[in-house]
Write a structure and sequence with these properties.
single chain, 410 residues, two-stranded antiparallel sheet, 17 helices, 4 strands, 2% strand
């Protein structure tokens, strides 16, 4: 024999007459005139919320919206509190994203300067000799500043996207030659904070001109060819900016799958000639400013990084830049007669407009923000938003972020 649950029997016995008549269902908000009794109710100490019997039928106790908000914020932030979860549940996910697009920006370099000053004051207060205190923060203070920023900032979506971008356009702040340049590391990370809702083309250009990346992937002080001295442009960054930061190794379809030639082989996106040609473009970049810790009197090519302001973009030294025409991807010409910086901007424009950038970067961002194995449909949808934000703009990070976070597969 089928038996009604005790709870339902309690509800049925407690119906008051006259009561609201519901011809479809009782519960989920259809509760007028219904009283519910329970063997116990509970309210956690200090909480406004309470587990009361009436919530089982009024719908007030349903947590679907909170659960969905919590799921979303686990992807869209680096950690959300209960207040933020309730806020998202109240206004909706899309409204929160738009709200975050307009939130005041918190910069890493600003926090870095505050933390470094606090460490210095603590050192002096403890009787330390200011002459023995480093003139620049290192990776330890960088870590303090990053956590301080991340645990206290309100522009949470911006910083989640910035962190994802930093895992794609990578430097190492602890295990490389830039570990002792905390201001430079913070300034580099600020590229992603600044452009998280900007355009990916600006990210590529700013990263290419930053002295921290210049030191990390060795195109800072990259000289033109001087064959008689056996000097040729360094090809490290030229290779990595294509392989890791933009187009990858093989031609892609919009959904991220690899294209095949007539014999069923993968089609390479670039070859050694492309690397050599792009390396020529990336010559002549040197110090954009002087470090307050340095001893040099003016910015110059060949300066060591201890003399360089690692927060200033690299400057172009024309007499060290490789002149002449450069050709990328077989038919993309950077004409002779341009300045060195115009060459760099032309090269970034060519790379940015390669068909691979949309699916290649979309996959990487999905993997950082949502899941490691996105479906071809997911990649295709996000890549389409990258290619055109709906207003004919390519590389719009706002469109990309929304496409990733609002996709059903998320």
């Amino acid at each position: 024999m089928y038996r009604l649950p005790i709870f339902l029997l309690l509800v049925l016995f407690c119906l008051k007459l006259p009561a609201q008549v519901y011809d479809d269902y009782v519960g989920g908000g259809h509760a007028e005139g219904v009283t519910v009794f329970s063997s116990s109710e509970y309210q956690f100490n200090g909480w406004d919320e309470a587990a009361t019997a009436d919530k089982t039928i009024t719908g007030d106790g349903l947590e679907g919206k909170l659960t969905e908000a919590s799921r979303f914020l686990a992807q869209a932030t680096l950690g959300a509190n209960l207040q933020t979860i309730h806020h998202v549940a109240e206004i909706g996910i899309e409204s929160w994203i738009e709200e975050q697009f307009e939130a005041p920006v918190t910069y890493y370099l600003d926090i870095m300067e505050e933390v470094y000053d606090e460490v210095y004051q603590f050192y002096i207060a403890g009787g330390g000799d200011p002459n023995n205190f480093s003139c620049r923060p290192d990776w330890v203070e960088s870590n303090y500043a990053w956590w301080q920023m991340t645990m206290t900032n309100e522009d949470q979506l911006r910083h989640r996207v910035a962190q994802a971008l930093s895992e794609i356009l990578v430097i190492s702040k602890e295990n490389s030659d830039v570990r002792d340049y905390g201001y430079g590391v913070a300034s580099y990370y600020d590229i992603f904070i600044e452009n998280a809702f900007g355009n990916y083309k600006d990210i590529l250009l700013d990263v290419s001109l930053h002295p921290v990346m210049g030191k990390y992937l060795s195109h800072l002080n990259n000289p033109k060819s001087i064959p008689e001295w056996n000097i040729f442009p360094d090809e490290n960054y030229a290779r990595e900016v294509m392989q890791l930061f933009s187009i990858g190794l093989f031609e892609l379809n919009l959904d991220g799958s690899r294209q095949l030639d007539g014999e069923g082989n993968f089609i390479p996106t670039y070859d050694n000639r492309d690397i050599s040609e792009l390396a020529k473009v990336l010559t002549g970049l040197g110090a954009g400013g002087l470090s307050e810790c340095g001893t040099a009197y003016e910015p110059a090519f060949w300066l060591e990084i201890r003399h360089i302001d690692m927060t200033e973009p690299m400057a172009m030294y024309e007499n060290w830049h490789e002149q002449g025409e450069k050709v990328l991807f077989g038919d993309q010409v950077i004409p002779d007669g341009q300045s060195g910086m115009e060459d760099v901007e032309s090269a970034i424009d060519i790379i940015f407009n390669h068909q691979n950038v949309g699916p290649f970067i979309s996959r990487l961002l999905i993997q950082q923000l949502i899941k490691s194995n996105p479906s071809p449909e997911y990649i295709s949808d996000v890549a389409s938003a990258f290619n055109d934000n709906g207003d004919g703009v390519r590389g719009d990070m706002k469109a990309v972020v929304k496409a990733i976070l609002l996709h059903p597969e998320a």
